[in-house]
Amino acid sequence: MPALVLAHGVDTNTENFLRTQEGLAVAPFLYIGAKHMVTGYDHLLFLIGVIFYLFRNKDIFIYVSLFTIGHSLTLLLGVLNNIAINAYFIDAIIGLSIVYKGFDNLGGFKRLLGFQPNTKIAVIIFGLCHGFGLATKLQDFNLPKENLWQNLVAFNMGVELGQFIALLFILIALGFWRHHKSYYTFAIYTNTLLMTGGLVLFGYQLTGYLLNTNV
Length: 215
Hints:
Blueprint: H1 12-20, H2 26-39, H3 41-51, H4 57-80, H5 87-105, H6 108-113, H7 119-139, H8 148-177, H9 182-185, H10 187-212
């Protein structure tokens, strides 16, 4: 099964559109970008981990912006400069990013290392990884060079729009939950489940990588 699953999966209709698209298509690329982020569970799981213990809007804005900068930078530069990384390998790293954030939320690094790694630096680094994952996938479609950068900018704007919509619903849900004692009571279990999900994604994508590279 892992060998048959494409990292950063794209449905058939979207794949056909990307393969045949010619010329400037801002609206379609905007829509596809937003759709990808709303359905991109790996990105959303990581962001849930990032904002889980952030209570001020200012802090949420800063951390999400750092992730967005990293994600946008490698998405654009990766496609425009043909910088490709094996999609399974990069998605395995994305799975580990979820594990990292859940472990960080549990205070694991303080217990293990005796200090807290810089969370802002970690978020932007993993943002760079997340962007490369999608950039690698887009390169599989051999997008036409004509109006490529304009279409990519539209796609990236769609990704950020989708991220904003998804975060809005996540923050509303967390806002309601934070008014109940169960939020803190089950914080350990929640972040443990987050780590488990990340490990499953890591193992799944790593298996795909090994099978597809005949290692």
